[in-house]
Specification:
Length: about 475
């Protein structure tokens, strides 16, 4: 009998995995395969991927099987394995990034292989949520209304019970798996915060259930652990979108958190509709925006040394834990794009490299939203004031104190603008601004005005070109 390859992609789990289930039901002996191909994982994502693959391998081992890990072009790897092990079928889950879609197209052209593509990553497939007129939505709220009416909730499936594996196990590439880990000790602290793999994901999902009822009030308080922290697990498909929906919707006051799952869907719908989302503003008036290339400012932002405590706390949380609270993502992104006028793509690149949940669709849509150049975006002229944002969402400074320990002893009144604390107080708190913690690298009011002027200039350019 011929065999079947189960090509794992962003579905690194055994339960509620339609590709794996369909392969098992085919009755053919299977070869579970992952091909490391560097598509769009950054350094932090590769750390996660290493551990998630290890966890998947262990889960399949417990079932008497294995996971073959190879590296290179997946189409070549699959073709080779199919030839060596007489595989006639490939079971895979759909992906939506342009390069991943291309891989699927390339695989379709391989002679003698039948592809079985299943869907489990989103609640609704891109291209299926349309306006009454049949076009894609540009704005989230009407998208959400239609999408949530369209999604049919279901009870997640258990892992398939009867899988037989091709024997002997095809050879894998241990070195490539090992090479996913960073050579620096930067990731050493990640295990304190995260457990990659399906078991860790299901445990997080259980924990998330306890946060659902208060999510609407807690979600904007970065100093509180009020959000689900499911994002890296969802990025790697360690739980399906349907599993997340099922667990969350079983709780009281589920709508605010369920809504976030639809923001994720919306990003993927945008990426599918606009493959240039990661690099090009969706609004053409931003084509000639007078961005400023400033390496020094970019580095200060990346290192959490801007002198604005809420911005620095966010950037340091990102560096230490591989994750940043959503409210703070908005604040730091706005600061980079508006206060520093640095192109949003530079910020998006840094996030893609350092976030454990780095996700081409969500990240690109998030940055375009903040920069004001997405279809449904915060208006560019609304410039977040990092002092007021800090005071509003981190009123007692708990978040800043955790990530910017230099300011640990600063009274709450001054924690979001420590440069205004009298010198004697700075002495008493053990932090001299300008010596132990930076002065603000730009002054808020002047930076805000510069951003508004730049925006006006770019609009004038568009208008004069049109007239
Ligand atoms: C500039 C910027 C960049 C971002 N980059 C990413 C990214 O690379 N990867 C990523 O997963 N999210 C990204 N987000 C969205 C959001 O910040 C994270 O999904 C969220 O903070 C993850 O934490 P959580 O799991 O506790 O979310 P929760 O609030 O508990 O939400 C549950 C899930 O819903 C999804 N979700 C929540 N908010 C959003 C959103 N605004 N857009 C899309 N999906 C959402 C995530 O899968 C999340 O795990 C970005 C947002 C901004 C403003």
């Amino acid at each position: 009998m011929s065999s079947a390859i189960v090509w794992f992609r962003r579905n690194l789990r055994v339960s509620d995995n339609p590709a794996l289930t369909a392969a098992a039901e085919s009755g053919k002996p299977i070869i579970p395969l992952y091909v490391i191909d560097d598509l769009d994982e950054g350094s932090a994502g590769r750390w996660w991927l290493h551990n998630s693959l290890q966890a998947l391998h262990a889960a399949l081992r417990d079932d008497g099987g294995y996971l073959v890990i190879r590296a290179g072009n997946p189409v070549d790897a699959i073709e080779q394995i199919a030839e060596d092990f007489d595989a006639s079928d490939v079971y895979l889950a759909a992906r939506y990034e342009p390069a991943a879609v291309q891989q699927e197209r390339d695989l379709e052209t391989v002679d003698g292989l039948k592809l079985h593509v299943s869907t489990d990553y989103l609640l609704n497939e891109p291209g299926t949520v349309l306006t009454g007129g049949g076009s894609p939505f540009k704005v989230f709220t009407p998208f959400y209304k239609t999408a949530s009416a369209q999604f049919v909730p279901y009870t997640p499936a258990a892992a398939p019970a009867d899988m037989t594996y091709v024997s002997p196990e095809p050879e894998g590439d241990r070195d490539a798996h090992q090479a996913l880990l960073p050579t620096l000790d930067w990731a050493d602290r990640f295990p304190d915060y995260w457990t990659p793999g399906e078991e860790g994901a299901l445990a997080r999902l259980e924990e998330a259930k306890t946060k659902v009822a208060n999510y609407d009030v807690e979600r904007d308080r970065p100093g509180h652990d009020g959000t689900s922290r499911l994002s890296p697990h969802m990025h790697f498909g360690e739980i399906s979108a349907g599993q997340a929906h099922y667990a969350i919707s079983s709780q009281r006051n589920a709508e605010p958190l369920i809504r976030q799952l639809y923001w994720r869907d919306f990003s993927y719908h945008l990426l599918s509709e606009h493959p240039t989302l990661p690099s090009k503003p969706l609004r053409s008036e931003f084509d000639n925006f007078p961005w400023v290339e400033d390496d020094e400012h970019l580095k200060q932002w990346q290192r959490g040394k801007t002198g604005y405590p809420i911005v620095d706390a966010g950037m340091r949380q990102l560096w230490h834990t591989g994750w940043m609270h959503n409210r703070v993502r908005m604040i730091v992104a706005s600061f980079l794009v508006k206060h520093l006028l640095i192109p949003w793509q530079h910020g998006a690149d840094w996030f893609l490299d350092t976030l454990l949940d780095a996700d081409l669709a969500n990240n690109s849509a998030g940055w375009q939203w903040v920069a004001g150049c997405g279809t449904d975006a915060a208006p560019y002229f609304r410039v977040f004031n990092p002092i007021l944002q800090g005071q509003k969402f981190d009123p007692d400074g708990a978040y800043v104190r955790e990530w910017v320990p230099e300011l640990e002893n600063m009274p709450s009144k001054f924690i979001h603008e420590p440069w205004t604390a009298p010198e004697a107080m700075q002495q008493e708190c053990g932090v001299i601004i300008g010596r132990d913690y930076p002065e603000p690298i730009v002054e808020h009011k002047a930076a805000r005005q510069r951003a508004l002027d730049a925006y006006q200039l770019s609009r004038d350019l568009v208008n004069s070109a049109a007239s």
